[in-house]
Amino acid sequence: MARLLRAVAVLAVLVGLDLALPRFLNPYYLRVLMLCGISVILAVSLNLINGFTGQFSIGHAGFMAVGAYGSAMVSLHVGQHWAAALAGVGIPAVIAQGAALLVALLAGGALAGIAGYLVGLPSLRLRGDYLAIVTLGFGEIIRVLITNIEAVGAARGLPGIPPWTTFFWVGIGMLAVIVLSLRLANSTHGRALFAIRDDEVAAEALGVDTTRYKVLAFVLGSFFAGIAGGLFAHYNAYLHPNSFTFIKSIEVIAMVVLGGLGSVSGSVLAAIVLTILPEALRSAQEWRMVIYSLMLIILMVTRPQGLMGSREFRWPWRHRPAAPPAPAAGGGA
Amino acid sequence: MAVAAPPGGAAGPGGGRRRVNGDVVLALDHVTMQFGGLKAVAELDLEVGRGELVGLIGPNGAGKTTVFNLITGVYTPTHGRILFQGHPIQGLKPHVIAKRGITRTFQNIRLFASRCCRDNVCIAEHVHARAGLLDAVLRTPRFARDEAAMRERADQLLALMGLDAWADVRAAELPYGQQRRLEIARALAGQPSLLLLDEPAAGLNPQESDELMHLIEEVRRRFELTILLIEHDMRVVMGICRRIAVLDYGVKIAEGTPAQIRTDRAVIEAYLGEDVHADLGA
């Protein structure tokens, strides 16, 4: 019951913000805010792969592209018509479009998840640098494919995607990936992922099905990258292969590393910082990227473990009771 | 924790060899491991009976750890069979073998360094978790029950190994001796019926190593475990193992009670060296 109430309260807050933000925030700030949200989803999802499981993937932009183009095609060919039909029978446009967006996002996410599965499965024999190279290759293959497929606009890009993404949906996406990550981290499944990161040989010897968990991390991570891609597609209303270059993957990795590998709150914080920073530096003109890079270097030199280290942010009023005092020393020892 | 009696026992290795009394938990039958031109283990026969504590010794490079890697599925033997409770396990993946009831520790400590001690133990209990991924994400009652039970069992094991005060400390921050103990606690968490200990006393001082050996004996009795132990410290092995097998260049050159091993010519020549009689006299 309490959980239901909490869910309703969260939804109400999101709807409230969805309605209020466009009124009180100028369009530029709103755009930065939305891009922050999408970055958060990307960073937290990559954190599942790179941070939790220790699998170095630099193809995240590829998964995002699969989700973006997949969901855009669903909306262009199906969703748009359905949304119009639903609106035609008297259902409010917001709800009709929301439902169509949700279907498109899930479809894009599922496609990206399948791509993650396909990349994950053969790559699992590889570790470290070798895996990184395979994922890099995957990302580039996706981009080149898109650039050459007429049906998705090829190098001209894909215009006319219905602009359905609102703050509400970005918020839902963020909540979903954050809650999933945190709950995973505090469960036996999350511990299995951390075990793989710390020592794969020992994890396997203690009964962790390392192959299954590495694939799981890849599928979950790429699913949410696909969701982020779908939100981006329906926010921008236009997609171009150049949005999904290797540089984009590096940006997301920078967020995860800067936040602290394995820390969900760190990924959130770093995603916001690294999305706002280049915008805030616009006044510096041509020095913008120089300052941005310098700040990254300084941050990493002064805090190599990342902003949050491996810790998580806790609401001060929700402190868990301290661990119970150690039980009376066992007679066995 | 009681395990069903193995059906019909294990197929015995070549006749005329010494047979273990009672149930055979582990049987290696002409196991050979060849790496290119190198035979790391050659035609090894070994049986371990229920509840036994068997020592596996041999000079550096004799193939002891390779034997562990074969039993736990890290390597698949080139020839031969490995039977666990009567069923062949060679060729199975390590995590499957762990679930069947064989866990191990490592010679060069392999803890999950970034996790606390309790988590290290909980990870090994993973094999007994019932709650699935969906339970974890939706936080169902089954998940809560599972997690509470794991935590409780982990704390009990930590207490048994004298690590209760360290439960919330990251494994990497533990003193060396404690790390060795945590490895054993973690291996026990999978509720194995066969425990493989790879030089558990390596790097410990004589007093620590004595304590650890008593603890291992206590653990064996308490959990009705079968233990196969690799050890370099002769004094230690002779003290707690009732049966010892000696490997040299991948070949078993002797097997018997500590007293027999102590006087075995081949062992003395291959492994113990010239002046060892003095050492063992103590």
Description:
The complex is a heterodimer of chains A (333) and B (282). Chain A is mainly α. Chain A has a domain of 213 residues. Helix content of chain A is 72%, strand content 0%. Chain A is globular and about 60 Å long. The C terminus of chain A is likely disordered. The N terminus of chain B is likely disordered. In chain B, strand 7, helix 7 and strand 8 form a beta-alpha-beta unit. Chain B has a domain of 146 residues: 3-Layer(aba) Sandwich (Rossmann fold), CATH 3.40.50. In chain B, strands 6-7-8-3-9-10 form a six-stranded mixed β-sheet, with helices on both faces. Chain B has a four-stranded antiparallel β-sheet with strand order 2-1-4-5, covered by helices on one side. By secondary structure, chain B is α/β, with parallel strands linked by helices. Chain B has eleven helices and ten strands.
Second-tier CATH architecture of the domain at 24-108 and 194-200 and 228-281 in chain B? 3-Layer(aba) Sandwich
DSSP E strands of chain B, number: 10
The sequence of SSEs of chain B as H and E is EEEHEEHEHHHHEHEHEEHHH
Query: In percent, how much strand structure appears in the residues of chain A?
Result: under 5%
Overall structural class of chain B, as computed from helix and strand content, comes to alpha/beta
Major β-sheet annotation of chain B: 6 strands, mixed
The share of residues in extended strands of chain B comes to 15-25%
On the 0 to 100 scale, the average pLDDT of chain A is 87
Q: How many strands, what sense, and barrel or not for the largest sheet of chain A?
A: none
Principal-axis shape of chain B equals globular
How much helical structure, as a percent, in the residues of chain B? 25-40%
Largest interface: A-B, 35 and 50 residues
- Count, helices of chain A: 12
